[in-house]
Amino acid sequence: MPEDRPKWLDEFETLRTKYREHLPAELSQIRGYWKQWQKTGWDRSILETLQGRVHKLAGSGGTFGFSSISDAAKKLDAYLQDLLDQSKTPPLDILSAGGQLLDDLDEALSSYDRPSGLFRAISNATLETGETFESRGDATIFLVDDDEFQAQAISEQLGHFGYHPVVFNQPEDALAEIEHRNPAAIIMDISFPTGPLAGTAAISHQQEKEGSSPPVIFMSARGDMMARLRAHRANAVSYLTKPVEVRELVEQLDNLTGQAKSEPYRVLIVEDQETLAEYYGLLLRRAGMETRTIEDPLRVLDILIEFKPDLIVLDYHLPGCNGVELAAVLHQHRAYMSLPIVFLTTERDPMVRKLAMSLGTEDFLLKPVKPDRLISTVSRRAKRARSLASLISGDGLTGLLNHSHLNTQLEHEILRARRYGDPVSFAMLDLDHFKSVNDTYGHAEGDRVLKSLARLLKQRVRRSDIVGRYGGEEFGIIFTNTDVDIATKVVEEIKVNWSRVRHACDGSVYCLTLSGGVAGFPSYPSATELLEAADSALYEAKNSGRNAVVAKRKYVLK
Amino acid sequence: MAVPELKRILYVDDDEDISTIARLALERFGQYQVEMCVTGEEAVEKAPAFCPDLILLDVVLPGMDGPSTLKAMRENPELVNTTLVFMTAKTQDEELRGYRELGAAGVITKPFDPVSLSAQVAEIWDHAHA
Fold first, then answer.
1. Closest CB from B110, B112, B118 relative to A368
2. Which of A33, A61, A60 is nearest to A47 (CA)?
3. Long-range contacts of the stretch A380-387 (C-beta < 8 A, 24+)
4. What burial class does residue A410 get, using C-beta atoms within 10 Å of its C-beta: 0-12 exposed, 13-18 middle, 19+ buried?
């Protein structure tokens, strides 16, 4: 739920506006003193007054978010101090330096639309949750190949994985568009009608001219040393031989476009002093995290279900129950046993802290907390918890949730859905004839296929949906807040897309299909029933000839 | 031994804009009780009654400057041990060392970040009372 802008932010903003309003007058006063000093024959007291004003400006600008003014004023301050120290008529070139510094100060004033520090954080302030920092925009990719047929084929394959490249047939056309379109990556063939190494030459030329180019993945039927060398000299990110294996291309593109980026950490803040709570939230959001704040510790369990934090920041002294008790209660729950808690306390007594530590709390921060201390401690703990969790709950090969954790998540989601009256759908997917892939091409290829499917699934569902691997060639998808009809449609699209992916191994190219079963809550009112129904639907899909999706619905006869 | 609690801060600065934001920052983020003074003389006068745990003193003041104010404070037996922190836009090491030698517990450089001012003050306090 987005919250209103906290009062104290407005208070700070008001002060900043007031300060800004004084600035132009202050600057012209300073110039006035400078002129006066020169006119009145270098009157020392005027110089001292001038320096006093500049010194004051240096010490205040940054506090109000005008760090460039502080910087410029500090330089001018030092310069004026030098003049005072010399106490004789300064030569002309020294004076012109002063003029220049004054101009710099004026220029700094005009930069006041780019605030620094706290005020930059305020102006970028996002509302609490409801908004996330990342948007899943489509990355622009260029694909450059004179063979139109090949270009289309690659394009089509990439499309299944969420990439829709802009196709060019000549390097020159692509280079011309770099400035407008700003591609995240360029996939470039090497041989063109204009020359057998025209691709690498074009990129090298671009880099010489502009100083750099977007990252380039070269592809070529040529695998010879000369081509590779030229590609290297053109600072290629990688070199793929044709026929290009789409899966590898996708992996390279993922790395370049940051699709492999992780979600921001979610932090729950439990603090009964409103201003402090908002302050911590602001600091953590400034660092790119998502936050939620509650003042009443007794509400924690509710929020946990809804918000699923990676970490809790907990004030030690809370009304109703103290921080340590709350931590103990949380750790009682199997699901929250390893949820990291960072304590904030004014308590400086080492005995008290020792006691708390012995009860199993992890980290103590002293209030008032330094912003960077809070951010670094929270990041560190959240990161550790996440990697631990993924080790425990993840499938090593695909990185998806494993069987038991997928089930746990499903229960979790049903609990949530029950509370808010939302639908949840579950899909069970199974690769058709997977055994033959292992038999024909080997297990390494089988693994690659599985990874590829995992990647496609993750890309096709929303961020709020959960994908897991059940084992072998079976996958599960939890569609949150989705009814069974929509979920079935999505799974059918997945089925079609997957069937069109061309897998390449040892020169042969082949396609695979999958079957899927879908069922929904609340028709199937528990996790167990939901799983059984989806499984049963999957069985039907297989029986009907595979490459099919079946949805199971309960019909209530009236 | 436990570090005593820092509750009351006497803030001395003639720059109105800075004083206001400092007070806001100290009260909001540090939950401190803050008393303001515009000159060194005023501070010397108000301090005994207010009984601050810590004094935040700008170095540049009209009339009696920061260091002179410190000396004047120390002449009062009640204030001899009060923790005192200077605030200054100067960053040369010799100056900073000079302030410490005068008896300041620490120095906060200007421009300060309102968001971390309280934490900086607390750090100096903790360090002085460790």
1. B118
2. A33
3. A381/A311, A381/A340, A381/A342, A382/A265, A382/A267, A382/A289, A382/A310, A382/A311, A382/A340, A383/A265, A384/A340, A385/A310, A385/A311, A385/A338, A385/A339, A385/A340, A386/A262, A386/A265, A386/A310
4. buried
Compute the distance between CA of residue A218 and CA of residue A213 in angstroms, rounded to an integer.
13
Kindly determine whether residue A18 and residue B17, on different chains, have CB atoms separated by under 8 Å.
Answer: yes
Q: Which two tokens stand for residue B94?
A: 């010799």
What local confidence, expressed as pLDDT, does residue A129 receive? 33
- Residues ≥6 apart with Cβ < 8 Å to A178: A142, A206, A213, A214
- Overall average pLDDT of the B21-48 stretch: 92
Taking CA atoms, what residue in A is nearest to B30? A368
Amino acid code (one letter) for A371: P
What kind and span of H or E run contains B51?
A: none
Q: Do A348 and B126 touch (CB under 8 A)?
A: yes
Helix, strand, coil shares, percent, chain B, to 5: 45, 20, 35
Nearest CA among B111, B38, B115, B46 for reference residue B76: B46
Mutate to test the interface with B, among A26, A60, A365 (most CBs of B within 10 A): A60
pLDDT at position A471 is 80
pLDDT attached to residue A121: 53
What ipTM is given for this predicted complex? 0.89
DSSP annotation of A479:
E
CB contact under 8 A, B29 and A61: no
Low-confidence ranges of chain A (pLDDT < 50): 1-3, 124-137, 260-261, 558
A→B interface, C-beta within 8 Å: 8, 11-12, 15, 18-19, 22, 52, 55-56, 58-64, 67, 70, 74, 77, 117-118, 121, 273, 275-276, 279, 283, 346, 348-350, 366-373
Cross-strand bridge partners of residue A515: A430
What pLDDT, on a 0 to 100 scale, did the predictor assign at position B72? 92
Answer yes or no: do A15 and B24 touch at CB < 8 A.
Answer: yes
CA distance A417 to A422: 5
